[in-house]
Amino acid sequence: MSDKSSAGSSTSEFDARGFRNALGRFPTGVAIVTARDALGGLHGLTVNSFTSASLEPPLILWSLRNASSMMPVFREADNFAVNLLAEEHIEDGRAFAKSGPKMFDSSRWELSNEHGPTLIGSVATFNCRMVSRVPAGDHLVFLGEVLTFSYSTTSPLLFHAGKFFESDELLGSRDSTSDSR
Ligand SMILES: Cc1cc2nc3c(=O)[nH]c(=O)nc-3n(C[C@H](O)[C@H](O)[C@H](O)COP(=O)(O)O)c2cc1C
Prior knowledge:
- It contains four helices and twelve strands; from the N terminus they run αβββββαβαββββββα.
- By secondary structure, the protein is mainly beta.
- The chain has a seven-stranded antiparallel sheet. A three-stranded antiparallel sheet has the order 1-11-12.
- The longest helix has 9 residues, at about 15-25.
- The radius of gyration is 17 Å and the shape is globular.
- It starts with 15 loop residues before the first helix and ends in a 9-residue tail after the last helix.
- Flavin mononucleotide binds near residues 45 and 68.
């Protein structure tokens, strides 16, 4: 099945909904990015904009919606941590996509990490120093230098067309029209 849309010649003709749907066709992993505020408060949100940017030096990036309640935290943060979610973290992925203060359960989160809380059982964790913030339309792109990292061979949680998937499920899926991001 295909749903063809094209950008019109003026902004008003641009199919914004279709654009989001088209972007959503790109399967991604899911991450929770965390940071501490100046008072030591813990913050985090679910993202799928995470990607690698450079190997030498080791850089990664992700983007945050300008209107997000998380913006004051990450605009000021000197450090942050990226937790790539495993299949078992699907409820964490959902919980950290909601507005409002987030709960960091100390039986599941390593809270003492100076860059930001790290989720036990993550597929990979990257502790980053914020090196650049780049305005990009309605988002701000954060570039982080990876200072330390760890990883496991656990199966990752995936996101496609507005839905979470386990790896095997996505390989077996056909078409999906939901799109909530
Ligand atoms: C799978 C998934 C990926 C998301 N990726 C991003 C992202 O890359 N950047 C972003 O700003 N919001 C992203 N969101 C939405 C944020 O998680 C959500 O806006 C935030 O946690 C809620 O806080 P806020 O409403 O105060 O911004 C994503 C949500 C989901 C479910």
